[in-house]
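Hey Z.,

So I finally got round to the flavin-adenine dinucleotide thing we talked about over coffee. Here's the setup:
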Amino acid sequence: MQPVETPDAPALDELCAWLAERAAGLDASGHWPADQLAACGQAGVFRWFLDRQHGGYDWSDADVVRGYLKLSAACLTTTFIITQRSGACERIAGGASQTAKDQLLPDLASGDSFATVGISHLTTSRRHLGQPVMRARETPRGFVLDGYSAWVTGAMHAQSVVVGATLEDGRQILLALPADLAGVSAPPPPRLVALSSSHTGPLECAAVEVDREWLLAGPDENVMATARSRGTGGLQTSTLAIGLAGAALQWLEGQAAIRPDLASAAAQFRVEHDQISTDLLALAAGQAACSTESLRARANSLVLRSTQAALMAAKGAGFVEGHPTGRWVREALFFLVWSCPQPVAAANLCELAGLQD
Ligand SMILES: Cc1cc2nc3c(=O)[nH]c(=O)nc-3n(C[C@H](O)[C@H](O)[C@H](O)COP(=O)(O)OP(=O)(O)OC[C@H]3O[C@@H](n4cnc5c(N)ncnc54)[C@H](O)[C@@H]3O)c2cc1C
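And the result:
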């Protein structure tokens, strides 16, 4: 693979075509996309998210968005794994642990190792339970972790996991947890409605002693607010939804070119997709086009409707396993549950219930 040093590089289109050819097989197999991730590593994709000091290409937020739009239209599963991987890289690069930076970032930038995140229990997962699901106790050496993180993408493939935990006094910490420490385990991941190949499942910690040198952030009241990365509460989830909607729309437009009955729906979706892409890129460039939450609610709505429109156009043929439209419909459902803040969930629920004005 040629290096993809800018989002306009022809090498990115070649990489995307290669990924798209393998997306149906990946979905059917449920296997970890080792070849796809290796190809992305060779093409320098993991360097998009890191600054030059850490071996990266130092892409701007807008360039990362443009890159992700293309990748997610080609293979959502591989792209989603990359978001979790880059979330870990960014938190390590921006964190307080020099050990983590020195020991982990070179191999992460080149693609020779894999890291992921187990942080959603601090924001959107298991928040209604009486006590934190991942607990930490401070010791003279560092911290002892007990509990679990319910959703950790590629946990069984990771050399390190950026994990959040809550101390007895309610303050939170973020650690770059070495996955080979005694007491860390990742049970086999469940089969999912879509993206099973992301091998997302629980990460369990039983009396895991973690040296203080791996502390990335905290102790703090809200460690996710202070250790913010590109992905958190930001544009990444919307970007992938808009990318997937783009794949479905392109397919619909291909059909509309030979079936006039589809033309007006395809044209209307194109107007909506152009508008939301413009707003997304404006937000990524720092302009206040709309709120990130309203963009996410619109992106969720668009990806659900556009993938279903593509399936309608494909008719029964699209309902056969292996057809891209059926897969896109399942993949679109992911955006209803992935890192979905309460106001976004409320807006989508109102739309589903026909309550919007
Ligand atoms: C495929 C996939 C990959 C993911 N990858 C990652 C990752 O790599 N890293 C990461 O950190 N996170 C990841 N996530 C987590 C994701 O971002 C969300 O946090 C997660 O989907 C929230 O779902 P939950 O079941 O944990 O929510 P919960 O809120 O824990 O809901 C679970 C259940 O609890 C009950 N419940 C919920 N709220 C209440 C309430 N108020 N009162 C009573 N009962 C209630 C409901 O029955 C619900 O089904 C992933 C999620 C998925 C699906």
